[in-house]
Design brief:
Elements lengths: L2 H4 L4 H9 L5 H19 L2 E4 L1 H16 L11 E5 L26 H8 L3 E6 L33 H8 L5 E5 L6 H7 L2 E4 L20 E5 L2 H11 L17 H7 L6 E5 L9 H16 L3 E5 L7 H16 L20 H12 L2 H14 L5 H24 L2 E5 L15 H5 L6 H6 L3 E9 L2 E8 L5 H19 L13
Parallel strand pairs: 2-3, 2-4, 7-8, 7-9
Antiparallel strand pairs: 1-3, 4-6, 5-6, 5-10, 9-11, 10-11
Bound molecules: glutamine.
Length: 499
Amino acid sequence: MSSADLTRFTAAETAAAIASREVSAVEVAQAHLERISSVDGAVHAFLHVDADGALAAAARVDAARAAGTALGPLAGVPLAMKDVIVTQGIPTTAGSRILEGWVPPYDATILTRLKGAGLVLLGKTNMDEFAMGSSTEHSAYGPTFNPWDLGRIPGGSGGGSAAAVAAYEAPLAVGTDTGGSIRQPASVTGTVGVKPTYGGVSRFGLIAFSSSLDQAGPCARTVLDAALLHEAMAGHDPADSTSIDAPVPPVVAAARSGDVAGLRVGVVRELSGEGYEPGVQQRFEEAVALLSDLGAKVVEVSCPHFAYALPAYYLIAPSEASSNLARFDSVRYGLRVDDDGVRSLEEVMSATRAAGFGAEVKRRIILGTYALSSGYYDAYYGQAQKVRTLITRDFAAAFEIADVLVSPASPGVAFPLGAKVDDPLAMYRQDLATIPSNLYGGPAMSLPMGLSEGLPVGLQVMAPTMRDDLLYQVAGALEAALHDRWGGNLLASVPELAA
Ligand code: GLN
């Protein structure tokens, strides 16, 4: 087994090979670090690689295995983490200059759990600054490039995580999804990305963008791998006041069940057609037909208020961001601009925020501050909250007639770098299909449904809150049928990237 081969395995296969002592965790970590060295110059998925930490963690797994300690189902599997998640002793920037050089003193709960399960953290992945964007071009550290076509964006805000997985730099990654930042990158890179139920996975240690919407979740190359990572990080956390105190939905068993016979699948009328590329629409119709062939009962559902999801989100998310980002004040974290050392505190704060935040972040802070200001609060923020309630009611009504809902995950294929970066509304429209689930709080996934113009496109599956297992049940069955049709995983045809 050559070291390059080790990067081609799924997480489940890697864990099995480590458990059966076919390979060591250190060999697996080394193979991925070599892969990163050879391709990340072209992809730029990582902002920071922690080679020493990864090798040390892998050695601990090998030692535990040698000592006969029972290992978890992902022990020794390498992992990448979006740079919005805090990591003790490892720089964390959230893609922003304002946090350059900041080294967190603690781990996010999800990282504590994943380390405890024996996963090996390779490093931190690139992202749009503070998770605001759909292309990773708003990173202060330069964009990430889509492994399918290096002239195109990998989606955003978690483009680094998706690209790392698609480029075989890591079998698993963690992302965060506030309006689509796990699912849209998954859609345009041919990976599987899941936004769990809001409150299903701890937010403790996530740098907050929009606290009522933010949710961490898995990125992987297969549905089963995503389920294994989901199960390893989910569950109640007393340190997160919005965490749900209930058993984790049985996502791994659901991914393995592979059966959708009799399941009612609702096609959301408002999430296709106008605004969606014809190639995306075509793959979507084929995926729905395949679900029907597999025995699902396909019904059409209407969610009339989804049309207002985008404007409601772009009031709620910036409003919460304007409050959350107030903490970056030049005193507590990262950057401080105080050239002459004699300025007032207010001048230092103002100069630091002017230099430390990028244009999109400033746009959101201004929008949010305006929407929350007295005299406008009811007309903007209050109105958006009412729309949020109507969208939640649309979901409730749809789930009376369907067990899950489906749509394309993104309106188009990966677009060329630079194509939308100066057109905020065009960028915001990437989230047409993903935002409703964030406003509602239910789980949603993107899984590959084929290629359009030679580039991957994703199917979105949405489920009621705390029924994350239904996503995996549908996706597991569909993935098996699609892999039969394609002769394997689409990602096997990612172009060779090594120099
Ligand atoms: N693209 C959306 C935005 O810019 C969603 C971001 C996210 O999910 N973090 O806000």
